[in-house]
Amino acid sequence: MARTRTASHSGSWYSASPSTLSSQLDQWLDQVPDHIDGLGSLPAAGARVIIAPHAGYAYSGPAAAWAYRSLDLSRAKRIFLLGPSHHVHLPGCALSQCSTYATPLGPLAIDRDTTAELQQAAAFDKMSLSTDEAEHSLEMHLPFLHRGLSRHHRDRKANADDDNDNDDPHDAAPFPPLVPILVGSTSAAAERRFGALLAPYLADPANVFVVSSDFCHWGSRFGYTYYLPASTDTMPDESGSGGYSLSRDAPPPTQPPIHQSIAQLDLLVMRAIESGSYDAYRRVLRDTANTVCGRHPIGIVLAALEHLAPARRASDGDGDGDGDGDGDGHAAPRFRFIRYERSSDCVSVRDSSVSYASAVLRL
């Protein structure tokens, strides 16, 4: 039976008005530069994997726009969407049982064939409709995806009209369907297992991957007050193991201020992700306990990339190991962070903030 997931967070986490929502998304997307050093003109060719935040749009919308403005949808035939479970305990991953996800901008179809393939291939749980609709980490990406696809098809049609005066209303392909995956509190072994399973899909140039994650949730209300001091005696190493937790009655530290320490904590995680090393990423999270809520979806994609690395080297044919066969010596595909923001700048233990980051990977 066909089931539709309602836009359960519209009207609270983001606008339920199609015109208002479209205007807001366009404003944020248009504020992103047309060119980013190291990526070139946007959307960046081959940039079909992104990490983007999932908080209320008033907080994370501008940061998420950087990832979506960079995303290359030109060859997309399906879009994998991985988000963390905030409400239901899962030791593994779960798949949506819906056929459509509703958004204020219009529906997005679910790829039932690919979902069925995954269901048969591994021990995926099934999301109930109530679990699906309660979770925001997947939903918060739907308006951005719908708007990004609409803009892509609009631009493609405009370019086609420049070359052909015959306007065929049926020439635009439907939007690519989604493969939503809810990721639970996965172990390292589970992340490697799911990464290996998703690796062939990640290797397919027709597939786009969106990884949903906010970064550090800092403050007493999150139960996380880890602090990295700047003194040479306790300078943290690349894993961030030189820090300590601040007590609630601790005087506000200034060397550095708390918000700079939070930025450093996030930077350690981002550097580990950019390194492409799954073990380095897990080590930083272990040593700092940084409250990156999408740490498990990110871990699965990093594990998938590592799983693909030997095959890319074997098929390289030019000896440089980057898998593209051109002999240019460029490194294997890795994430690049292009935007980082925080909801506020903490100066006291009684303050709190959430960090938002956008990253792109060209594959």
Short description:
The protein has helices at 18-31, 57-70, 112-121, 129-134, 136-139, 142-163, 188-203, 258-275, 278-288, 295-314; strands at residues 4-5, 35-36, 40-41, 47-52, 78-84, 93-95, 100-101, 108-109, 125-126, 178-183, 207-212, 217-218, 226-227, 244-245, 336-342, 353-362.
| Percentage of residues in DSSP E strands | 15-25%
Q: CA-to-CA gap between the ends? A: 36 Å
SSE series? EHEEEHEEEEHEHHHEHEEEEHHHEE
> Low-confidence segments, ≥5 residues, pLDDT <50?
165-173, 323-330
Find the structural class using helix and strand composition.
alpha/beta
For this structure, the quaternary state is single chain
State the main characteristics:
363 residues; alpha/beta; 9-stranded mixed β-sheet; 3-stranded mixed β-sheet
Describe this structure in words.
- By secondary structure, this protein is an alpha/beta fold.
- It contains ten helices and 16 strands.
- Strands 4, 5, 6, 9, 10, 11, 12, 15 and 16 form a nine-stranded mixed β-sheet that branches.
- β2 and β3 form a beta hairpin.
- α1 crosses α2 and α9 runs antiparallel to α10.
- The radius of gyration is 21 Å and the shape is globular.
- About 5% of the residues have low confidence.
List strands and helices in order, with pairings.
Layout: E1 4-5, H1 18-31, E2 35-36, E3 40-41, E4 47-52, H2 57-70, E5 78-84, E6 93-95, E7 100-101, E8 108-109, H3 112-121, E9 125-126, H4 129-134, H5 136-139, H6 142-163, E10 178-183, H7 188-203, E11 207-212, E12 217-218, E13 226-227, E14 244-245, H8 258-275, H9 278-288, H10 295-314, E15 336-342, E16 353-362
Helix pairs in contact: 1-2, 7-10, 8-9, 9-10
